[in-house]
Amino acid sequence: MPEGRLAGAFAPPYSHGGRRNRSMTAEIAPAFPHRHLLGIEGLSRPDIEALLARADDAVALSRQVEKKRNVLRGRTQINLFFEPSTRTQSSFELAGKRLGADVMNMSVASSSVKKGETLIDTAATLNAMRPDIIVVRHHSAGAVHLLARKVDCAVVNAGDGAHEHPTQALLDALTIRRNKGGIEGLTVAICGDVLHSRVARSNILLLNALGARVRVIGPSTLLPTGVARLGVEVFTNMREGLKGCDIVMMLRLQRERMNGSFVPSVKEYFRYYGLDSEKLALAKPDALVMHPGPMNRGVEISSEIADGAQSLIREQVEMGVAVRMAVLEALATHLPNG
What we know:
Blueprint (H helix, E strand, L loop, with lengths): L2 H5 L37 H18 L13 E6 L5 H12 L3 E6 L11 H10 L4 E6 L4 H8 L3 E7 L5 H15 L6 E5 L6 H12 L3 E5 L15 E3 L2 H5 L4 E4 L15 H8 L3 H4 L7 E3 L12 H4 L6 H20 L6
Parallel strand pairs: 1-2, 1-3, 3-4, 5-6, 5-8, 6-7, 8-9
GO cellular component, one term: cytosol
Subunit structure: Heterododecamer (2C3:3R2) of six catalytic PyrB chains organized as two trimers (C3), and six regulatory PyrI chains organized as three dimers (R2).
Family: Belongs to the aspartate/ornithine carbamoyltransferase superfamily. ATCase family.
């Protein structure tokens, strides 16, 4: 049985895959050649594997009594979130602090952005403060790439519009790998509001890169035009799409991004596209369930499934801190004197 399912969410430090327990070290972990992490697009399979290797070590570190590794001591990390976030922002904050960074959470609600300052001016202002790493979430696709061109420090994309959310895809891959022993050859279904989901896009890119067979499932109104060109199988019938799946990844309805009627009603949506025990039974008997959060219980997933034995949802949260530690440490190797 793979280690993640055997040990549970808060097991003692482990020896993954028969390896000795290691601390996070840039000398041991494979090199990561990029100055920023702006998306999964543009990363090679070795790049992804390097980050996952670091993240495995970060899990072990996080399960120890002493959780700190001061590779970012004396460094400044700014978390700049233009959209509300609980999991991602707190996860990046904890990751930075565990690595010894001075972490500042910038409140956009009380910032000059609310007074009409442009993103470019905000970037110039932050750059003048000489931070080492900026973690950015923005409602517009491509905004993080623009900011990265205007600052001298490392930039991490914490989600830009419906474009990408690279650390979510990495933590999902880490969770799958630790519970299934690998990703190559698995069938993964991504179900729900694919149209508005940056999580879906990043996961499609990453899972394809690691050799999974990816399916997307949803009503035609919530599937992007031409999504099959990303190398996925497309299903509008959830029951058909779930057959033979190893992993079922649910997505929430992003009603805040909808300016029209995409589904007849929440009740109808759950009837056809909500994951319950009857639909999950169509997947493989050992299928596992994931959700990036926040969940809408009774909309895209039932409480029975969300809290059930096949759910990895809480474990995903733990893996999120580890992946973000891995990303921050990998980027730190490119900082001056890093």
